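Researcher: Please predict.
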Amino acid sequence: MQYKMVTVRKILVPDEMPDFIARQIDYLQGERQLDLFSSLIYLMSWKRNTWIHDEDHQEMFAIAWLYGYERV
């Protein structure tokens, strides 16, 4: 069986999100796929809360969490 290497382009997220994602990854000790959505409990900022409630942003957040991100 042949495997093809896939390169994923890093997603752009708003300025508030990279620090939050990094803190959550550290807090959860790398258990990204298991605890991604449980980390949303810690979204205390109204701006982040409003941003994450958009369905497209939820997908963007998940992709950034798993594959990396860059600041907008």
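Model: The helical segments are 16-27, 32-35, 46-52, 55-67.
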